[in-house]
Amino acid sequence: MRLEIQCQNRLGLAQEVLNVLVSYQLDLRGIEVVPSLSRMYVSFPTVNFEKFQELMAKIRRISGVEDVKTTAFMPSEREHNELSTLLRTLPDGLIAIDVKANVTVINDAALEALSVERDAIAGQSLHGMVRGFNFQRWLEGDDVLAQTRRLEVQGKRFVADILPVMVPDDTGEEILAGAVINLKSESRLGQHMVAFKKGDQESFNTLQAHSNLMRKVVREAKKMSQLDAPILIMGETGTGKELLARACHAASSRSAKPFLALSCASLPDNVAESELFGYGANAFAGSAEGKKGIFEQANGGTVFLDEVGEMSHQLQTKLIRFLQDGSFRRVADENEVKVDVRVICTTQKDLPGMVQENKFREDLFYRLNVLTLALPALRERKQDVIPLAEFFIARFSVRLGRKAPKLTDSCASFLQSYPWPGNVRQLENALYRAITLLDGYELDREHLQLPSYNNDFGYLEQDFDGTLDEAVKRFEANLLRKLFPAYPSSRQLAKKLGLSHTAVANKLRDYGINRKSVKI
């Protein structure tokens, strides 16, 4: 039986409780005192009900005892059971060793990694079983510090966190008592990275939406993700259009099916067509079998078309047909294929303007422009800059295995005032470079190494030398060199620039610009 006694902190109280147990000839199995909780716990053999009632009454009459009740566990038993369960269920190997590198505790995952039985390794040294680290030499060193090493066990490779165990002595000084080794296999590390990256890419929770503009976008995207109509995401480069598309897919009923992407700007027309729709048998020389395109491979899921404004008219026509009923024909194939796919497109171009200029099909624009999301530029959502920066700093610090640095006030102010022409991608890249090269634990403005930028003039020269007249001449010379191949005579160039023939001829001579110096 176990009792929990709520009591005052009084000298001799524990002795009086023990005297009661002795009076009933009960063998004490354990006693624990938790002063911070004003609790005492005792364990003894089970007694009959009548004797138990008498015992409880006598303990309650002891001066300083406020309450007595039975309990299922002593504190140490609860802690032992929790640790035992944790060790048993952990998928990673865990080994505890003493100062001689002998095994004191080992869980099932570590036993499997070492390919040994518990009885065969308990009390045995790890020397000879694990390659890649000398535990004995490390434990005998003057300064025993935590290590992360790659080890080899039974021909299998692991990453191990090797952590010293320090125990305070009577004076409070910490002494080395051994170490704990946490083994992670290659497959487990791979699972961690997949989960980490998936969590980054496929969740609305990772979208930093503190500004009103982004909150509105996320709110609308969550509603649109539940529908099946095409989504058109518009925004400048680097604003996170694909990240939003993946979040829409992950939040939809199609999340268990594939999410496949194609950049319409990076492939020639014929390649893009075969990638999207596939091709039939013998469509190409040496191709005896057909190939499924992205639409077939993503059946039931989502197809992401990046920069749909770059799509050729031929592909636009075929995409219209597909959006009508989900059917299409492979390249060089007569058979109809029908699939169930949702299409999400992105663009940074002015599609309505392209429609007016006959560069984009009007009927395709209206089919894609059913559900539209406009991602704001980072300069339009200042409230999101610092949360985004802190998110990237934390993520990169974990990847680099270092403590996350703190943003200084001047750096935070600079981040919010910078116009970010490259948007979130530029912020991410700038912070990754800064954290990689950072030596201390504070991230300041100069660590970012960002060029000066003006919305009217673009990137500005940071190290400007000379006078205004010299700067004007440099600009003039550069402009003339760029125009000269298209207007390779002083008369043509003078007409283009609205200057006299003599003035242009003199400038070309002064700057050494001619048919020999400039390739035409």
UniProtKB/TrEMBL annotation:
**The ACT domain, residue ranges:** 2-73
As for subcellular location, the record says: Cytoplasm
Q: Which residues form the Sigma-54 factor interaction domain?
A: 207-436
Q: Which Pfam families match?
A: AAA_lid_14 (PF25601), HTH_50 (PF18024), PAS (PF00989), Sigma54_activat (PF00158)
Family matches, as SMART domains:
AAA, PAS
The PAS domain covers which part of the protein? 79-126
What name goes with this protein? HTH-type transcriptional regulatory protein TyrR
InterPro entries, per the entry: AAA+_ATPase, AAA_lid_NorR, ACT-like_dom_sf, ACT_dom, Homeodomain-like_sf, HTH_TyrR, P-loop_NTPase, PAS
Asked if the keyword Nuclease belongs to this entry, the reply reads no
Question: What PROSITE patterns would the database entry show?
Answer: ACT (PS51671), PAS (PS50112), SIGMA54_INTERACT_1 (PS00675), SIGMA54_INTERACT_2 (PS00676), SIGMA54_INTERACT_3 (PS00688), SIGMA54_INTERACT_4 (PS50045)
Q: Does the keyword Ligase apply?
A: no
Domain of life, per lineage: Bacteria
Instruction: Name residues in a coiled coil.
Output: none
Q: Which UniProt keywords apply?
A: Activator, Aromatic hydrocarbons catabolism, ATP-binding, Cytoplasm, DNA-binding, Nucleotide-binding, Repressor, Transcription, Transcription regulation
